[in-house]
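Consider the tokenized backbone below.
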């Protein structure tokens, strides 16, 4: 293995690419090659094996894609270029990029192969494809079935090799590389160069040119790295403030587990944020829909795990937030590489518990940069931000509404109620801002800022701090017993159950929020494996039913409908002795009429014990 440093060319014209590719690059707005492109393209054009090390977002796809396309023989109707990618998302992204590069190559056919998709369309793509992009598992399936003919293969590319090995694809990669023709050129690209990647390179690459491109100072400055040391408030409360106050176009939030993606995304949705969970439990169609929504501006926040976010290239992502820190520096590099790509600016914020601050030093070494301390927006800043937004909305509304008619209406209301216009405005503003007080109480902020180690060390489950109760809206008045006696109940079926991870609190919360029902009118919930039965007042309005059909629990649509099934009758909910399977906070005699904090009832006792210790 040799190490070669090639001077960066002044332009693509100096790299030896054919004219039709040069025209395409001009159309796409490419003006000058990145360092990895300038160094790799001449070697790939010459047919030499490549071992490239460069961080994500530096243009590796063009570095191998452009010269590999230039070497295709369109007289051969069989795969000549095969690209291995660790995830479906990255495979789709690479395939689209290659199709864009080859837009002036009418005979170019690209097949994208990944698991979770039907074989039929993939077999049709393979009939005339010269380029194949896929994940290791599905490529192996086609090779074993004999549907992927590699006799004409001239180039094999491993993209994000370190991540493929981290995901456990080592044996699959070795099997694939042992099966491809020995004469095929090989190119291995990786953001980092751990020992396993080097061993694969030493085994399968023939005298490769080793190209390492370190991030320049200018490139590092594109991603501003910051860290907030968790203290005073929970991570979930900190996320709420950042989502509301910080300036970003689109945000990608990284958590540790699939379940965390659901809980954090659902919490943000309840706050009115356009958020979605992206995890391995979703099928390919669901994942592609979420990514498309984020790309076109319909979604602003996506909560994801490392695996499914690998290779995402969405220009709108201007902020990456590490809600849970990755255990290794390589994963951190890949995470923050989702922003600040291809010359764009980006920001990365990490939540670090005091015991995790040591990891930050490793991140700094891996990125060769400084991670600055991030100060969380205070309650006063939050209030000022909300007030500014409120003023902007009022000005925008005033420009669109018929103010003369509305002013006359306010005058009439004032005469009838003996309230001043200012008092009427204050009442309406209070009702509009119940869930987001414009002026958080100062004493709440003081209590927020006290050290609360015992609450922060309870693990990484998203929970509210006890003090968040002070900022809640007053609970709605509960219906009287006589009202419930006159209710006619009807049984409804929801298409979400235990297999989806649904809990009674999820069901009740979704119905209460979407239908605007007090918990008293949700008279019994039975959760089965694939569906749920719930008793609600008969004759629900059509518009509310339409909202409930679209509501989601655990990323599963409720799809509510009338049910002919049976559920044992329940005693009226005001009887404390009846066997009610709803969450305790919705039963008579519960602690509160609204949603409880996610913390357990044992938390205050545990906190008192730790203070005493």
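A designed sequence for it:
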């Amino acid at each position: 293995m040799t190490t070669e440093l090639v001077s960066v060319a002044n332009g693509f014209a100096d790299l030896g690419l054919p004219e039709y590719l040069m025209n395409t690059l001009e159309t796409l707005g490419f003006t000058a090659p990145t360092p990895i492109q300038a160094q790799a393209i001449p070697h790939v054009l010459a047919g030499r094996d490549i071992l490239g090390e460069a961080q994500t977002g530096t243009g590796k796809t063009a570095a191998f894609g452009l010269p590999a396309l230039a070497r295709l023989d369109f007289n051969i109707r069989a795969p000549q270029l095969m690209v291995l990618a660790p995830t479906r998302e990255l495979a789709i992204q690479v395939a689209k990029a290659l199709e864009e590069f080859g837009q002036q190559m009418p005979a170019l056919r690209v097949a994208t192969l990944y698991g979770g998709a039907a074989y039929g369309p993939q077999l049709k793509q393979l009939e005339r494809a010269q380029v194949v992009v896929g994940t290791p598992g599905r490529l192996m399936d086609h090779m074993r079935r004999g549907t992927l003919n590699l006799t004409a293969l001239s180039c094999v590319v491993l993209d994000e090799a370190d991540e493929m090995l981290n995901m456990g694809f080592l044996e699959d990669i070795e099997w694939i590389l042992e099966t491809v023709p020995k004469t095929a050129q090989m190119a291995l690209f990786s953001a980092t160069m751990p020992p396993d990647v080097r061993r694969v390179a030493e085994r399968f690459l023939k005298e490769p040119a080793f190209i390492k491109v370190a991030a320049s100072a200018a490139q590092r400055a594109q991603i501003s790295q910051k860290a907030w040391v968790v203290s005073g408030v929970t991570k979930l409360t900190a996320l709420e403030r950042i989502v509301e106050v910080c300036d970003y176009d689109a945000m990608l939030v990284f958590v540790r587990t699939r379940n965390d993606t659901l809980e954090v995304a659902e919490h943000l949705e309840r706050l009115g944020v356009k958020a979605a969970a992206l995890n391995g439990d979703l099928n390919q169609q669901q994942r592609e829909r979420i990514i498309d929504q984020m790309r076109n501006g319909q979604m602003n926040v996506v909560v994801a795990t490392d695996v499914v976010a690998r290779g995402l290239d969405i220009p709108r992502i201007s902020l990456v937030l590490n809600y849970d820190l990755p255990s290794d520096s390589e994963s951190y590099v890949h995470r923050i590489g989702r922003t600040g790509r291809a010359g764009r600016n980006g920001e990365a914020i990490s939540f670090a518990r005091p015991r995790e601050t040591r990891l930050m030093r490793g991140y700094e070494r891996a990125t060769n940069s400084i991670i600055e301390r991030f100060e969380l927006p205070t309650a006063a800043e939050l209030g000022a931000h909300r007030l500014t937004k409120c003023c902007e909305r009022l000005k925008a509304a005033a420009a669109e509404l018929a103010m003369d008619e509305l002013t006359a209406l306010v005058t009439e209301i004032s005469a009838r109620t003996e309230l001043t216009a200012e008092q009427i405005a204050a009442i309406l503003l209070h009702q509009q801002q119940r869930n987001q007080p414009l002026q958080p109480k100062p004493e709440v902020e003081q209590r927020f800022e006290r050290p609360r180690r015992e609450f922060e060390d309870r693990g990484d489950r998203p929970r509210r701090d006890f003090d968040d109760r002070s900022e809640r809206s007053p609970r709605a008045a509960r219906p009287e017993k006589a009202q419930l006696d006159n209710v006619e109940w009807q049984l409804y079926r929801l298409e979400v159950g235990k297999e989806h991870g649904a809990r009674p609190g999820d069901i009740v919360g979704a119905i209460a929020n979407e239908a605007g029902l007090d918990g008293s009118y949700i008279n019994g919930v039975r959760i089965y494996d694939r569906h749920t039965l719930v008793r609600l007042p008969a004759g629900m309005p059509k518009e509310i039913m339409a909202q409930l059909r679209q509501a989601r629990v655990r990323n599963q649509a409720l799809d509510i409908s009338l049910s002919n099934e049976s559920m044992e009758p329940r005693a009226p909910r005001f009887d404390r002795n009846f066997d009610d399977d709803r969450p305790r906070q919705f039963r008579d005699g519960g602690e509160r009429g609204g949603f409880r904090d996610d913390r357990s009832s044992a938390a205050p006792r545990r906190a008192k014990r730790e203070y005493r210790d």
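The chain has four domains: 2-214, 218-377, 380-471, 481-586.
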